[in-house]
Amino acid sequence: MARKMWMRGTVAAVSAVAMLTLAACSSEQAPSGSGEETAAGGDEMSEGDDLITIGFSQVGAESGWRAANTQSIQDTLTEENGFSLSFSDAQQKQENQIQAIRSYISQGVDVIAFSPVVETGWDPVLQEAQSAGIPVILTDRAVDSEDDSLYESFIGSDFVLEGEMAGEWAVEQYDGEGYTMVELQGTTGSAPAIDRKEGFAAAIEGSDIEVVDSQTGNFTRTEGKQVMEGFLQKYDDIDLVFAHNDDMGLGAIEAIEAAGMVPGEDIKIITIDAVKDGMQALADGKINYIVECNPLLGPDLAEIAQKVIAGEPVEKRIVVEDLAFDQEAAIEALPDRQY
Amino acid sequence: MPTTTPARPRAAEGGLRRIAHHTLFWPVVALIALLAANTVYRPSFLSVTVLNGHLFGAPIDILRNSAPLMLVALGMTLVIATRGIDLSVGAVVAISGALSLSFIATSPNPGSLSTVLLAIAIALGVSLVLGVWNGFLVSVVGIQPIIATLILMTAGRGIAMLITEGQITTVTSPPFKTLGAGFWLGLPVATLVAGGVFLLVAFLTRRTALGMLVESVGINPSASRLAGVKARTIVWTVFALSGLFSGLAGLILASNVMAADANNAGLFIELDAILAVVIGGTSLQGGKFSLSGTFVGVLIITTLTLTVTIVGISPLVTPLFKALVVIAVTLLQSPRIRESFAARARQRAARPEEVSA
């Protein structure tokens, strides 16, 4: 009897825990970057009185890329530049993000900006913002909605184009050599994973690069390494790895080295992102090519927010320009790489 | 209905039946089935070669990748045996990795052995303190384990983020890398460390009275206290050990990729560890525990992860595939399910005899 009661208690406690964790994660963070006043953009600002209050809901802090993105936003949307930023971290959960947006609506901020964790399910909360008369700006990731009047503008990289750039370089370098390629995908179902895969596949069509396998490494080093270990056990003749971000590529490097091969030589590696660690590996010759995914969206966001408040028309889609690096370009760019 | 089972040659089946009734029978069958499935897809799956003076192959990868989960699950087994549960292990993993790598990254000489040893000592010390904190909340303050460790579970990743300042800390330090990715006598150091801890715990619990004391606390805390067992000390100790082992797991995970990722290091490892313990036949209601069961459980989970890649399960259905395997293993282990299967088999076997008679 006592045992049964105990079990029931445990079940109840586990469900309570599940709910608590969901709720506990939405705690807002004070913008930690506000102490360092390194204004990166928004120069022609009117000083002082009329601060634009902006609520920003970030996806999380899941990668070096995201950390740089957060830093850029916090460093740009400062009081010196005419903004009062409240920043919240959604810990990669849509419900946290919806909660944060609702709280921004009830606070009556001037502008809401966010990077959607997933593509779908945003219509109700965006309609709430619209009926409250608060303009919404999307950064980095898009939403999949029929009604594009729900947001003012979407600032971010074109992930399909990133995949294409990576694929085109691969074709240029390796077509005709009958390369066998494996792919390390990002988090299943996320826009960058879907689009980069699609862009790359389109670019290598018609070449003799053969994609033999594609698995998810969840954008992390540990899983990138684990999946690559599996690939190395499964196939004898991998020539090329395409990783959807640097971190998974760095994990793959570890796996390739552990298998007694030389990354960048025996197995070529192409990644996307161009964070500092990735650029270092590129400069060292362990990665062969990196397509940048520019995280410094702060200045663009500041500009669009000002225009929206001033009632000026803004473009629905603002594509952030992405560069691409080979080894020499990486060595050149590395010293003043901010992230 | 058919209470009389048909007469069978008992002697011949006795040994087999005893093996089949062993608690570890079905987990081991599941492990063998997974390995067999991999071998079908990749005939050389089980082959181990020598590469650069160390062993190389899928079984070695499995053993090496099992090490962190093995350590966490060991602590979890002891905690569960005292009727507790430790949800904070993943957070401790993240803190330990963040502490050690941040220390190495800021030290003037990241490659020196003394720096690395100091970093390891600091990380393990803090992990032990965190375990002691959990134990204090449970055994002295009397908070339910699931709630007590939930505190650190939610706070811990935040602490790790503070330590790494939200960045992924990357370092180059050959001595530290040895821990997670190095080899000694041809075997992965991580595996040797986890194996050593496993043997130590097995020795302490099975060759001394400690294991019995842990079980008695788990079966009935009040009765064991009345019988003179220091239940409070036992509970406190197992939580402290769980923290320490998780810290060691965190070091291995950080060393594996030489990066401290406060967000993702050891994410959901508490669930994997609990699963490994349960697959191994230790009841969540406390009491009897099986270290060898946990060992098999850990191997199943790690092999499952590799299987997804080798068999080429689409990422879209990976969670479903894993869930199905876990459901199959746990159902096969359930005595009630096995009983009803056996009864059905007996019925089926009995029927033709009735007809012929």
Automatic annotation (TrEMBL), chain A:
<keyword id="KW-0813">Transport</keyword>
<comment type="similarity">
    <text>Belongs to the bacterial solute-binding protein 2 family.</text>
</comment>
<dbReference type="Pfam" id="PF13407">
    <property type="entry name" value="Peripla_BP_4"/>
</dbReference>
<keyword id="KW-0732">Signal</keyword>
<feature type="domain" description="Periplasmic binding protein">
    <location>
        <begin position="54"/>
        <end position="312"/>
    </location>
</feature>
<dbReference type="InterPro" id="IPR028082">
    <property type="entry name" value="Peripla_BP_I"/>
</dbReference>
<feature type="signal peptide">
    <location>
        <begin position="1"/>
        <end position="23"/>
    </location>
</feature>
<protein>
    <submittedName>
        <fullName>ABC-type sugar transport system substrate-binding protein</fullName>
    </submittedName>
</protein>
<dbReference type="InterPro" id="IPR025997">
    <property type="entry name" value="SBP_2_dom"/>
</dbReference>
<feature type="region of interest" description="Disordered">
    <location>
        <begin position="27"/>
        <end position="47"/>
    </location>
</feature>
<keyword id="KW-0762">Sugar transport</keyword>
UniProtKB/TrEMBL annotation, chain B:
<feature type="transmembrane region" description="Helical">
    <location>
        <begin position="87"/>
        <end position="105"/>
    </location>
</feature>
<feature type="transmembrane region" description="Helical">
    <location>
        <begin position="62"/>
        <end position="80"/>
    </location>
</feature>
<keyword id="KW-0812">Transmembrane</keyword>
<dbReference type="Pfam" id="PF02653">
    <property type="entry name" value="BPD_transp_2"/>
</dbReference>
<keyword id="KW-0472">Membrane</keyword>
<dbReference type="InterPro" id="IPR001851">
    <property type="entry name" value="ABC_transp_permease"/>
</dbReference>
<keyword id="KW-1133">Transmembrane helix</keyword>
<feature type="transmembrane region" description="Helical">
    <location>
        <begin position="265"/>
        <end position="284"/>
    </location>
</feature>
<keyword id="KW-1003">Cell membrane</keyword>
<feature type="transmembrane region" description="Helical">
    <location>
        <begin position="291"/>
        <end position="313"/>
    </location>
</feature>
<keyword id="KW-0813">Transport</keyword>
<feature type="transmembrane region" description="Helical">
    <location>
        <begin position="145"/>
        <end position="163"/>
    </location>
</feature>
<feature type="transmembrane region" description="Helical">
    <location>
        <begin position="234"/>
        <end position="259"/>
    </location>
</feature>
<feature type="transmembrane region" description="Helical">
    <location>
        <begin position="111"/>
        <end position="133"/>
    </location>
</feature>
<protein>
    <submittedName>
        <fullName>Simple sugar transport system permease protein</fullName>
    </submittedName>
</protein>
<feature type="transmembrane region" description="Helical">
    <location>
        <begin position="24"/>
        <end position="42"/>
    </location>
</feature>
<feature type="transmembrane region" description="Helical">
    <location>
        <begin position="183"/>
        <end position="204"/>
    </location>
</feature>
<keyword id="KW-0762">Sugar transport</keyword>
